[in-house]
Amino acid sequence: MTSGTKPLVGIIMGSTSDWESMEHAAKTLEQLGVPHETRVVSAHRTPDLLFEYASSAERRGIEVVIAGAGGAAHLPGMTASKTVLPVLGVPVESKTLKGLDSLLSIAQMPGGIPVGTLAIGKAGAINAALLAAAILGNKYPNIREALRKFRESQTVKVLSTPDPAKSAIAAVLAPGTKTKRKKRA
Ligand code: RP5
Q1: Which atom of ligand 1 is nearest to the CA of 92?
Q2: Which of 127, 66, 117, 122 is nearest to 92 (CA)?
């Protein structure tokens, strides 16, 4: 089965201010060719929309939800309470507590309604997308292969720069690099 063009992943976030972090989930899914949609859905400002979104997601063909929120971050947990789809939570970095509040709010779900919790901020958003792709890869071989290629190119990139000191020197000495010489008095 190929993944087609209908959104399989729903990326939701509590506020437009979360986009700075959550765009990394969208970019990663784009890179992997995973169809997705993005939406602001606030658990406390638009609770009816949240219920509608979460309860209709499965019917609309969404297979994984990525939910990002900051502070008293109840969006991922509330979403998970209204759907049996896998919900991956991204703790957005808050100004006051640097995202520790978001992390604990999302990770500490009482037993019975799980939210797969990722790291705070950009890393979590990227990994939520990669994990969503891994879940979808069980059903869609094209997504699994895209994920495999992503991992392989990441490995090649790391192995091609084994010594950061040498590559820094190479960058300075690279042809075309202007180096300032001190004039002698
Ligand atoms: C949460 O409150 C959002 O997820 C966001 O991280 C945080 C702050 O929202 P704004 O006040 O920036 O809209 O609901």
Answers
A1: 6
A2: 122
